[in-house]
What does this fold into?
Amino acid sequence: MKTKINKILSVFLVIVIAFSSVLPAYAGQDSRSKAYYNDIIAYNAGSKSVQSWIDTTLSKNAGSGCEWYILSLVQNEKVSGNRYNYSNFESALIDYTKRVKNINPSSKLRIALTLASIGSTNSFINDTMNTAIGKQGIMSYIFGLHMLNNGYKSNSHSKSSVTNTLTGMQLSDGGWPIMGSRSDIDVTAMAIQALAPQYHSNSSVKSAIDRALNYLSSNQQSNGTFTAVNGGNVVETCESTAQVILALASLKIDCVNDGRFIKNGNTLFDALSLFKSGNGFCHVQNGGVNNLANQQVLYTMVGYNRMNSLYLLDKARPNEVETNSENNANNGGSGQSNGSGGSNSNSHNSNGGSSNSGGSASNSQSSNGGVANQNANTSDSQTSNGDTALQAEENATDGTNQEELAIVNGESDTQELQDEANNNANKKANYKIWVILAICIVAIIVCVVLYFTKKGNKGNYLIVLGVSAISLY
It folds into this structure.
């Protein structure tokens, strides 16, 4: 009889292990991620279809920083099952690179990254790889490493050389600075994102990332948020919090299940919810819905849902990139049509753009590599995730309707996307319930068998209870 009991317990353990192997993939991730993604899309697209939004508003503002929306849509295709045509946007973005002179290096890399994400082979990518990496501080190394991680080549830099440069810029506290000797949450998170693909293959990278994770964990606030410098003040920001979520996801770490990033019971998703306003997100708590916050939360949700690097591009074609030095929009490489060039907007966001607001270039660099060109005088002040640069984009019009430039078209007139998000959340919640019920039922059956075989002693019951508790946890 003892053998039978052991067999029963063995079967029970096999069932529990089977459920446990499935559970993390579905029940472990926070269900708010897809809801937030759909909320932001609904907020920006309004009553338009997503395809129409791409072909009109986003294409019209190609080069102004809306590339992050495109990158998000492309990289989310495998998760959502949705497929879109980016040919109009590709034509508009390539036209922008021809029309606008003196694009700063980090912006060039951001544009090249976007073109690569949609499968373009335009020569702008090759030209950027050979001229922009390392030319504008740490962000030009970070964006450059993203491109190198996808197999794109540079005449002057290799993945190894940029990796060594980037790890060499890490400070003693484990963080990375925008400049100088003060670590910055956003830049540290973004450095992790660029280095993440080498975490398991490069011991120096692993060591650097582990120190960086300790830095981030020790600087998390009691409500789960992270801070950035805003106008000289340290404030909790949506973007900083989002970047940390993305950094962890790039390492396949689910932030809601990692105790290092749960403070007073508050997860990073609990923290992110503090910045939500309607269908959008604010830069700071109780602020107005902000385009930069929306962008960064959107692509963070994509990275989280992938639970892998956002920047390992699904459609990259590094071996097919044109090598001629001319930016010819008709040779885009992915079948783009001659879409409109859009309005002549030279305003870039703090994720790597420049904002020309009536004068010569300044060098107010955001932590995402942007240069905010305001008025006439040169400035070397740098900001974290768009404090100065964020204001530059919000205030800049440069011949473009500001509402369209901000890509804010009001609340959605339809509930289709929101309903989809709610359905996804409900499905996941229902799955969790069924898994819990199944484990409980199996435990009850085992206990009943033990009872009727008269082997239901305290020790066996405790074993069943312990295994069940561990499985449910």
